[in-house]
């Protein structure tokens, strides 16, 4: 039974060992403040990665999420600053637009039987382009509610705090775990990722599930866009460039198979934290170029893919047939 | 002929005058089909007979053009798999089955999970899964991924799912195609239990032995038409085959010994010669000679080392002992490339996994081995490729609209013939065929046997693995019998007969040295 959770265990071990190493080098590291910041800084990534996990579990991919985040921030800035909207109604519109955008991509993927890679790649360009159409500048958002929401946090002794973005991410992760394992929708996702044709023959509503999972990914990218605008206090069409790749990385490091059907939401969460940890370490060090983050993550990603491959080989090798050279 | 003892109550499932056409091709034409309570009913026919279309119409995958379907007297017209399940028609397919990545319990209850407070009650699901599997004699970890279990277990889980969804009619589409004898026995036990519970089972298979071992009635389709329904006990095998083929099967007249062979020692030097050839944990060391124009059969039960022997001869597995020689020259077979260079060809057993490249055209599949031998830097001109492809399509009667058709769209028998063509195009001196007739219909079966005979008449040496003993006897000059990964006997000439092979397989397991 242990090997089913092995990728997850390894990922968790990497996080714990990494954190202990950081704490050994920089005693200030092991504080609630650092942990709180880690969660806040990576909240938008974590929220997006949850949606990506669902999409990948179902056997798809969503390359549009970074662009949707960027588009959402611009949309919010334009609505609030130039349109004079109240942020809450702007949030509602942004979520609806992002979710609808995802649903449209899901519908195209299902109806025309198109590869998700191509459809969401096109979606990425469309979303990014729409952002530029709205505005090419970075627009600061000065609404008082933004300041209030920015201050909203659960505070702990010693300067630690869980900000609204961090709380949102934790809530999304918790809801996603329940959704993945305790709802029919979750079971259908795994079924779809296991074998689309079998799932269909077993009565899984393939079309509905496909549309729903991309809508969910879009919706969560929209939520991540709101969080990102709270975090930066601005809207900019170039925001969150490349975030789709960061989220895919987090999903894979978290032990989810890129081909779908196997993996856990909680693994993705840990994958996000590992990426954040490396970044925080480099900030603490001060002398390292931030590009070392990318290098470290690249190496980790490679190691994890090799690990998965090895596990899969061990797994299928258990079939009982005599080993063949 | 109709049922001689018609009952007053309506039959479980009655199909009357069912028709279905695709793009003008009549796949089913006015077919009647009746399943009664508590019977196992074999649905037989060659490829293209309309079995799949009939099943898919019953399960709502296709919508019928004409005709009626009644279940216990009530007219039904399912519009999808889900609806068919609700109407008590459950189906278990041969290949696409359940989901290997989900747990056994999740597979059993996908789409109908027990819910509590709006969430899936995983504890209840596990308990109910264990309870559902008890009547099938399965006691296993229902939380483990289904893919970890054998194909037979997966089939039984699929059946359990279908039956638990209150199936009254259970359609089993070639469930035994990838099972070994022991697993088949387990499956049959399950089927008999279900029959005694009054479930009507529609059993689609290519194995006539299984039909006679299990089925109460047989319905035969041919070219979309109903040929007839018979009681199994009243239908001799030869008549059944005639019904399926619509003609007398020439290959049924199996000869006992190949003509022109009186069992005398063949004086010609062997093309290939293996001495003490073997591989640990695969096959015990064996001696084997194959002469030009000779067919050597490899017979034995599943897992006896037949396929392993073939793989060693082709260099797919590397021998760790013994010597090989071709034309008297010692050679080393370090991989299929070596074997291909020596003029060997190999048609593997699992043509989907190891043989065809589904998305490529028939032409590209045929040309593959020839091109590989030439090296990819010297491409075969397109015109030449087309000539070769067309020649073999004609020669082997590969039924395809044209050479550019993706091979995955062909039927199993025609895929097998295209694979044969791939190797024939390289003009091999030794061709190894692993289960050349598995999973293909009776007509293509006979054609492939005729082809094997023609090839050996042309001077090619053939090594053929098959689990069909009659088939091996029909074309082999010599038969090597294997048991428990060991070559236990070599029959030649007049000795080549089914009963001798069976006797050799069943003989006491003392170490018998292969003939020197």
Task: Tell me what you see in this structure.
The complex is a heterodimer of chains A (325) and B (516). Chain A is mostly helical and 325 residues long. Chain A has one domain (2-312): Orthogonal Bundle (ABC transporter involved in vitamin B12 uptake, BtuC), CATH 1.10.3470. Chain A contains 14 helices and four strands. Chain A has helices at 2-25, 32-41, 43-57, 65-82, 87-111, 116-134, 144-151, 164-182, 184-194, 196-201, 206-232, 243-253, 265-285, 291-317; strands at residues 139-140, 153-155, 161-163, 234-235. In chain A, strands 1-4 form a two-stranded antiparallel sheet. Chain A has a two-stranded antiparallel sheet with strand order 2-3. In chain A, a hairpin with a 5-residue loop joins strand 2 (153-155) and strand 3 (161-163). Chain B is an alpha/beta fold and 516 residues long. Chain B folds into three domains: 13-248, P-loop containing nucleotide triphosphate hydrolases (Rossmann fold), CATH 3.40.50.300; 249-343 and 428-516, Rossmann fold, CATH 3.40.50; 358-426, no CATH class. Chain B has 17 helices and 22 strands. Chain B has a six-stranded mixed β-sheet, sandwiched between helices. Chain B has a six-stranded mixed β-sheet with strand order 18-19-20-15-21-22, with helices on both faces. In chain B, helix 5 packs parallel to helix 6, helix 12 (362-374) packs across helix 13 and helix 12 packs parallel to helix 14. The longest helix of chain B is centred in the middle third of the chain and has 16 residues, at 181-196. Residues 1-6, 248-264 and 509-516 of chain B have low confidence and may be disordered. At the A-B interface, helix 8, helix 9 and helix 10 of A face helix 2 and strand 8 of B.
């Amino acid at each position: 039974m242990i090997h089913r959770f092995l990728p997850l265990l390894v990922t968790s071990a990497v996080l714990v060992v990494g954190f202990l190493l950081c704490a050994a080098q920089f005693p200030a590291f092991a504080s609630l403040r650092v942990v709180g910041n880690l969660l806040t800084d990576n909240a938008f990534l974590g929220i997006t990665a949850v949606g990506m996990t669902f999409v990948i579990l179902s056997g798809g991919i969503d390359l549009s999420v970074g662009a949707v985040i960027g588009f959402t921030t611009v949309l919010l800035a334009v609505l609030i600053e130039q349109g004079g909207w109240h942020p809450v109604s702007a949030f509602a519109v942004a979520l609806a637009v992002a979710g609808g955008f995802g649903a449209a991509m899901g519908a195209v993927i299902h109806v025309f039987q198109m590869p998700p890679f191509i459809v969401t790649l096109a979606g990425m360009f469309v979303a990014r382009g729409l952002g530029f159409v709205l505005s090419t500048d970075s627009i600061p958002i000065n609404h008082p509610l933004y300041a209030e929401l920015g201050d909203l946090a659960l505070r702990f002794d010693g300067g630690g705090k869980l900000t609204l973005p961090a709380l949102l991410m934790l809530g999304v992760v918790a809801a996603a775990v329940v959704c993945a394992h305790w709802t029919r929708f979750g079971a259908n996702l795994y079924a779809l990722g296991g074998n689309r044709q079998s799932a269909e023959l077993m009565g899984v509503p393939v079309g509905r599930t496909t549309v729903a999972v991309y809508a969910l990914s879009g919706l969560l990218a929209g939520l991540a866009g709101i969080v990102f605008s709270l975090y930066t206090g601005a809207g900019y069409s170039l925001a969150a460039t490349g975030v789709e790749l960061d989220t895919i990385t987090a999903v894979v490091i978290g032990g989810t198979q890129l081909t779908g059907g196997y993996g856990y939401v909680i693994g993705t969460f840990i994958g996000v934290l590992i990426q954040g940890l490396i970044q925080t370490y480099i900030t603490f060090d001060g002398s390292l170029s931030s590009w070392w983050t990318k290098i470290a993550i690249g190496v980790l990603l490679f190691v994890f893919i090799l690990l998965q491959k090895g596990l899969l080989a061990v797994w299928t090798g258990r079939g009982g047939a005599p080993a063949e050279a | 002929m109709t049922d001689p003892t018609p009952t007053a109550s309506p039959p479980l499932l009655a199909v009357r005058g069912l028709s279905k056409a695709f793009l003008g091709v009549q796949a089913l034409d006015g077919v009647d089909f009746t399943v009664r309570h508590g019977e196992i009913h074999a649905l037989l026919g060659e490829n293209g007979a309309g079995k799949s279309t009939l099943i898919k119409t019953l399960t709502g995958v296709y919508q019928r053009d004409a005709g009626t379907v009644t279940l216990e007297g009530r007219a039904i017209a399912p519009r999808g798999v889900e609806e068919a399940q609700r109407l008590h028609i459950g189906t278990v397919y041969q290949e696409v089955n359940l989901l290997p990545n989900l747990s056994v319990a999740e597979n059993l209850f996908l789409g109908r999970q027990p819910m509590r407070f709006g969430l899936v009650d995983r504890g209840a699901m596990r308990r109910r899964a264990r309870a559902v599997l008890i009547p099938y004699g399965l006691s296993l970890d229902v939380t483990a991924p289904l893919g970890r279990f054998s194909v037979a277990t997966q089939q039984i889980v699929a059946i359990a799912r279908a039956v638990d969804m209150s199936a009254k009619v259970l359609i089993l589409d070639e469930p035994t195609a990838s099972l070994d004898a022991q697993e088949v026995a387990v499956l049959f036990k399950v089927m008999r239990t279900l029959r005694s519970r009054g479930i009507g089972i529609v059993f689609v298979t290519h194995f006539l032995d299984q039909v006679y071992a299990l089925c109460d009635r047989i319905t035969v389709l041919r070219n979309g038409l109903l040929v007839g329904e018979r009681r199994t006990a009243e239908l001799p095998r030869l008549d059944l085959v005639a019904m399926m083929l619509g003609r007398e099967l020439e290959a049924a007249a199996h000869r006992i010994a190949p003509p022109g062979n009186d069992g005398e020692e063949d004086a010609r030097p062997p093309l290939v010669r293996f001495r003490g050839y073997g591989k640990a944990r695969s096959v015990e060391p064996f001696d084997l000679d194959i002469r030009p124009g000779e067919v050597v059969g490899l017979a034995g039960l599943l897992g006896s080392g037949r396929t392993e022997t073939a793989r060693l001869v082709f260099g797919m597995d590397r021998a760790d002992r013994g010597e090989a020689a071709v034309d008297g020259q010692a050679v080393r077979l370090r991989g299929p490339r070596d074997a291909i260079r020596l003029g060997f060809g190999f048609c593997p057993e699992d043509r989907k996994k190891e043989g065809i490249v589904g998305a490529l055209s028939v032409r590209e599949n045929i040309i593959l081995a020839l091109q590989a031998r030439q090296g990819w830097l010297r491409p075969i001109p397109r015109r030449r490729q087309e000539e070769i492809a067309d020649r073999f399509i004609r020669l082997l009667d590969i039924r395809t609209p044209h050479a550019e058709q993706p091979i995955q769209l062909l039927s199993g028998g025609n895929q097998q013939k295209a694979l044969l063509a791939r190797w024939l195009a390289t003009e091999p001196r030794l061709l190894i065929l692993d289960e050349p007739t598995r999973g293909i219909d009776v007509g293509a079966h006979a054609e492939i046997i005729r082809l094997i005979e023609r090839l050996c008449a042309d001077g090619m040496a053939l090594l053929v693995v098959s689990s069909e003993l009659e088939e091996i006897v029909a074309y082999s000059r010599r038969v090597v019998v294997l048991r428990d990964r060991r070559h236990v006997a070599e029959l030649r000439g007049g000795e080549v007969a089914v009963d001798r092979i069976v006797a050799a397989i069943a003989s006491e397991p003392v170490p018998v040295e292969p003939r020197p």
